[in-house]
Amino acid sequence: MVKPLAVAVAGLGAIGTKVANTLDAGGIPGLALVAVSGRDPDKTHVVAAQLACKPDVAKTESLAARADIVVDCAPSAAFAGLARSVVVAGRVLVTVNAGALLQHLDLVEAAKATGGRILVPTGALLGLDAMRAAAEGSIARVTMITRKPPNGLEGAPYLVQHGISLKGLNAAKRVFQGSAAEGAKGFPANVNVAAALGLAGIGPDKTTLEIWADPDVDRNIHRIEVEADSARFSLQIENVPSLENPRTGKITALSVLACLRGMVAPLRVGT
């Protein structure tokens, strides 16, 4: 029998806890949870103690020494140190922090030197397979329009910096228009999908993004429109927000699990 690959999970919020619980239950044959880390050590110990596999509770930047694959579900502020430790060790990093990755693209070159890999799951978006295929040709235009309930955008650095209040909002309001790169920086907890879309296509600086706060929607809605020499396509997804964190759709954790499953499955469907 082939020894399972060791997996560590950084961050035990809505996404990380779902991933850890699934691995603990043996939900992905070929992968074994061996370690976890979290911002609050006491809470992390409590969660770890409830898991049958009893993973080690470690400091975030030591996970790479314990695992073949490190799943980054931690806050974006922890990305730089965690990602660098994984890449330098030549391990595989699976990260939901595509926006933070944009600020540290030197890690891609570092991974080339060490044999490490950086994988960005599809997350709460759709159409990345088509986008990656179109990018093999020529893409003229990529636009993404995001609509979220106001409470899913509250506290975003861009809103705070520009004094934009969403309290008492009774009609849809566009709160941002610019590039995906700018949007990912101003809304780090909200639009990692825009960063992923930019990385898969013509680049975050050339990808146009609009963000709307809409009190009439109860789902996180992302619509992308693409004009390329190979195809023209428009896609829309309406994600159910996580109860634990309304900034994150439920499907994001499932996307991470699908990414992990694809790493060990004998059959993989899709680009």
Shape: globular
Largest sheet: 6 strands, parallel
C-alpha Rg (nearest Å): 19 Å
End-to-end Cα distance, whole Å, is 29 Å
* Overall tally of structural domains: 2
Total strands: the figure is: 11
Taking pLDDT < 50 over at least 5 consecutive residues as the criterion, the unreliable ranges are none
Relative helix content: 25-40%
Secondary-structure-based class equals alpha/beta
CATH architecture of the largest domain: 3-Layer(aba) Sandwich
Number of helices: 10
| CATH topology label of the largest domain | Rossmann fold
DSSP strand content: 15-25%
Order of helices and strands: EHEHEEHEHHEHEHEHHEEEH
How would you state the average pLDDT, rounded? 94
Per CATH, the class of the largest domain reads: Alpha Beta
Query: Strand order of the main beta sheet, please?
Result: 3-2-1-4-5-6
CATH homologous superfamily (4th level) name of the largest domain: NAD(P)-binding Rossmann-like Domain
